[in-house]
Design brief:
By secondary structure, this protein is of the alpha/beta class. It has helices spanning about 15-25, 80-90, 105-115, 115-120, 130-135, 155-165, 195-205, 235-240, 260-270, 280-285, 300-315; strands at about 5-10, 30-35, 45, 50-55, 65-70, 95, 155, 170-175, 215-220, 220-225, 255-260, 275-280, 315-320, 330. The strands form three sheets. It has a ten-stranded mixed β-sheet, with helices on both faces. A two-stranded antiparallel ribbon has the order 3-4. Strands 10-11 form a two-stranded antiparallel ribbon. The protein binds inosinic acid and magnesium ion.
């Protein structure tokens, strides 16, 4: 579909990076645009036997034909961006909106030392909260003020809307997830901005009437880094026993874990207006499906799990993640 918004269903780290890299390879979008808060998000992509943890460059970089953009609503840390452009060798196809806010060292310092942000909220320490505070004060520097970024500057909204006018596929890459939304999440244990599909559109300058699909990404179990509620939270020991232990891509912190929650899934679908669900890490909960690309392997317990999600949310599960690599996917979009 021409304009697809990809967003997170729970507290982040659902595997958006992996789903996005698959979609970029499969659907050949002319543009993949990063939305969300900023460098507090880490998207993990496994491609060509190499693992990338990206905080600025969109996960769609795996398709060499795809133009990569960062929308005006996203905070840019120039140091992180320039480093990732080198690692991914994508300098020649990256565009940054003139009006992206800039994270400076002072923001990182406040974020990583403040008793409120770091201590109570458990922020990632990446400077995003304090930078958004300065943006609200209208004192934050923008990308257009930074000499090192001049060659990347562009009007992201214009580029995307022109591409959509030509009938191209465009994918908007959300970061964080709905339950971390400043408005709809578990306040105050949330990030510094809204993270819904609507916010993703606003981040990149696309109006709601242009959205064709909203794909919400959910993991087959739930994890959370930082403080705040987590219904059904398991002990560290039980998490380990189930093989659900994960560490944060940005902070390296051990992620707290809980079983899949159908009520939260329903809420995530409602708040995002989801039209599809991508379900990741199904192989961790059901090892029999590991690395499969075959729809015929969806049977028994696996099929029951998917049925229950679809019956609760009234939305189809169209993509299933069966392993860490971009190609470890069962794609059911054709058959739905
Ligand atoms: P901040 O966004 O760094 O201010 O952190 C606020 C809360 O959101 C903390 O609980 C973080 O762990 C969480 N958070 C922010 N970004 C992400 C993300 O991309 N994945 C998972 N948790 C996140
Ligand atoms: Mg992450």
């Amino acid at each position: 579909m021409p304009f697809t918004v990809v967003c997170g269903g729970f507290w982040g780290d659902e595997g958006k990076g992996k789903v996005l890299s698959y979609l970029a390879l499969q659907d050949n979008p002319s543009i993949v645009v990063r939305a969300g808060v900023g460098t507090n998000a880490g998207h993990t992509i496994e491609f060509n036997n190499r693992e990338y943890k990206l905080r600025m460059v969109p996960s769609g970089f795996v398709n060499p034909e795809t133009r990569m953009l960062i929308g005006a609503g996203v905070l840019v840390d120039p140091e992180v961006l320039l480093r990732e452009l080198k690692v991914t060798k994508t300098e020649d196809r990256m565009g940054v909106d003139y009006q992206c806010g800039i994270i400076e060292q002072k923001h990182i310092e406040i974020d990583s030392t403040s008793a409120h942000l770091k201590g109570k909220i458990g922020s990632t320490g990446s400077g995003t909260g304090p930078a958004n505070m300065d943006r609200a004060m209208r004192s934050l520097k923008l990308a257009r003020d930074i000499p090192e970024l001049q060659s990347y500057l562009t009007d992201v909204s214009l580029e995307i809307n022109d591409s959509l006018d030509q009938g191209d596929n465009v994918i908007a890459e959300g970061s964080q997830a709905i339950l971390l939304s400043l408005f709809h999440g578990s306040y105050p244990f949330v990030t510094s901005k809204d993270t819904s599909a609507a916010a993703i559109c606003s981040d990149v300058g696309v109006g709601p009437t242009r959205v064709d699909d909203v794909m919400v990404v959910m993991k087959a179990f739930i994890t959370r880094v930082g403080t705040g509620e987590l219904p059904g939270e398991l002990s560290e020991e039980e998490t380990k026993k189930r093989g659900w232990t994960e560490y944060g891509a940005v902070t390296g912190r051990l992620r707290r874990a809980a079983p899949f929650n159908y009520d939260l899934a329903k809420k995530a679908v409602r708040l995002n207006g989801a039209t599809q669900i991508a379900l990741t890490k199904l192989d961790i909960v059901f090892p029999e499906i590991a690395k499969s690309n075959n729809i015929d392997n969806i049977k028994g317990e696996v099929a029951d799990f998917i049925d229950r999600i679809e019956n609760t949310t009234k939305v189809k599960v169209t993509i299933i993640g069966t392993g860490p690599a971009a190609e470890d996917i069962i794609d059911m979009r054709e058959s739905t």
